[in-house]
């Protein structure tokens, strides 16, 4: 009579299921099978743990940072009334640990990479910045400290997942440090998604919106400084393939011993 053997081994990280139909399996084979399953379960647990490790691609730490181009009220000429600006000349500060902007009204600036960046596998972007003005005493205002990324063919307008607006990076802001993030690289306006294999530039922008005098706000210059722009990606650690090979090796040994008997 044939007997069906069904065994499961559970670790905190992985479930390994072994099933088979054997005609009176030898005791030695059972021992080899147990050794193989144990090794595979252990390696599987480590593999799953390794894959879960997030790695970081730094697009900028903003150390001694300079924009490649400026637009609107972030641009010295564009900010002048004759050119459609609000008449307040912006101040852009490249510091040792951050990049600061003091401006009035909507403005933006682009940074072009010297060579394209391959970020295939990235699943999240994170932008960290500090707002000094408006101050806490002035209150909280609806604004957009947005960010876009280009892939050489088009610009993708990103939407933050942790702001109140659900559109670009609009939300309620006051003085403080923020890290906004998005869990995809789709375009807010419905354009093509970002090609992560060829990132060529990114664009920072600030729309003071409700802080602007035209919308009933104080209408005084805002101050924002940027300290980090990164992408998160999941990449298996070097030991992953070795661990999988260990499990396969145990299986091969178990089969040879069975045939030998």
Q: What does the secondary structure layout of this molecule look like, with pairings?
A:
Elements (H helix, E strand, L loop, with lengths): L2 E8 L4 E8 L4 H25 L2 E7 L8 E4 L18 E4 L4 E5 L3 E11 L4 E12 L7 E3 L3 E4 L4 E3 L13 E3 L2 E7 L16 E8 L15 E13 L4 H22 L1
Helix pairs in contact: 1-2
Key descriptive features of the protein:
six-stranded antiparallel sheet, disordered N terminus, five-stranded antiparallel sheet, 2 domains, 18% helix, 261 residues, 15 strands, Jelly Rolls, alpha+beta
Account of the 3D structure:
There is one protein chain. With 261 residues, the protein is an alpha+beta fold. It is 18% helix and 38% strand. It folds into two domains: 3-53 and 237-260, no CATH class; 54-234, Galactose-binding domain-like (Jelly Rolls, Sandwich), CATH 2.60.120. It has helices at 27-51, 239-260, and strands at residues 3-10, 15-22, 54-60, 69-72, 91-94, 99-103, 107-117, 122-133, 141-143, 147-150, 155-157, 171-173, 176-182, 199-206, 222-234. Strands 3, 5, 6, 8, 13 and 15 form a six-stranded antiparallel beta sheet that branches. A five-stranded antiparallel beta sheet has the order 4-7-14-10-11, with no helix packed on it. Helix 1 runs antiparallel to helix 2 (239-260). The longest helix has 25 residues, at 27-51.
Structure summarized in a few sentences:
The chain has 261 residues and is an alpha+beta fold. The protein has 2 helices and 15 strands.
């Amino acid at each position: 009579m044939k007997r069906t053997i069904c065994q499961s081994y559970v670790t905190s990280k992985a479930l390994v299921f072994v099933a088979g139909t054997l005609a009176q399996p030898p005791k030695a084979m059972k021992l080899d099978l147990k050794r193989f399953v144990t090794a595979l379960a252990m390696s599987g647990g480590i593999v799953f743990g390794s894959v879960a490790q997030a790695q970081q691609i730094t697009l900028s730490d903003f150390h001694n940072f300079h924009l490649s181009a400026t637009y609107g009220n972030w641009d010295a000429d564009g900010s002048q009334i004759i050119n459609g600006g609000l008449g307040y000349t912006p101040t852009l500060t490249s510091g040792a640990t951050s990049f600061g902007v003091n401006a009035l009204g909507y403005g933006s600036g682009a940074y072009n990479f010297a060579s394209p960046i391959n970020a295939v596998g990235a699943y999240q972007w994170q932008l960290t910045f500090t707002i000094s003005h408006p101050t806490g005493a002035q209150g909280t205002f609806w604004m957009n400290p947005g960010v876009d990324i280009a892939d050489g063919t088009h610009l993708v307008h990103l939407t933050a997942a942790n702001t109140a607006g659900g559109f670009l990076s609009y939300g309620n802001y006051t003085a403080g440090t923020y890290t906004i993030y998005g869990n995809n690289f789709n375009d807010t306006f419905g354009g093509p998604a970002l090609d992560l294999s060829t990132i060529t530039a990114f664009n920072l922008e600030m729309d003071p919106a409700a802080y602007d005098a035209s919308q009933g706000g104080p209408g005084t210059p805002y101050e924002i400084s940027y300290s980090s722009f990164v992408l998160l990606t999941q990449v298996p650690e070097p030991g992953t393939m070795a661990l999988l090979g260990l499990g396969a090796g145990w299986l091969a040994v178990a089969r040879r011993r069975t045939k030998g008997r």
